Amino acid sequence: MAEVQAVATEIEMLQRMYAAFNRRDIESVIGSMHANVDWPNGMEGGRVLGKSAVREYWKRQFEILDPNVEPKKFTREADGRIAIDVHQVVRDKGGKLVVDQMVQHVYEFRGGLIQRMEIRS
Question: What is the CATH number of domain 2-120?
Fold first, then answer.
């Protein structure tokens, strides 16, 4: 029962996090992350490590792109991670569509905070 409650709590946090990201409330999103979070750099490639690196990555991203991510389906994986099917729509600052696709975001938690995220095509 405790594991079911933990999953529900993690999913609720992730739902709030996506809503905050779409509002550009970056500090709320960063607050859900472990200090040494390991995050994918979907725009430039590679990974960024730590909250300040994620913040700087998103600042660069939001200067040139307008991404919107809507979680559609949450699944608990066998290893305990949470996978989310996400509808991702990215426009440039002029409003031109850059990407409209489904991707999967996979989250690993540590101490109730996001430790690592990966993007699957």
Answer: 3.10.450.50
**CA pair distance 39, 49, nearest whole angstrom:** 6
Going from N- to C-terminal start, the domains of the chain cover 2-120
* Among 58, 101, 47, 110, CA closest to 82: 110
| Start-to-end C-alpha separation, the chain | 32
Question: Is the model's pTM score more than 0.90?
Answer: yes
DSSP string, 11-35: HHHHHHHHHHHHHT-HHHHHTTEEE
**Are residues 121 and 113 in contact, defined by beta-carbon separation less than 8 angstroms?**
no
pLDDT tens-digit series, residues 66-76: 999 999 999 99
59 φ, ψ (degrees, to nearest 5): -60, -45
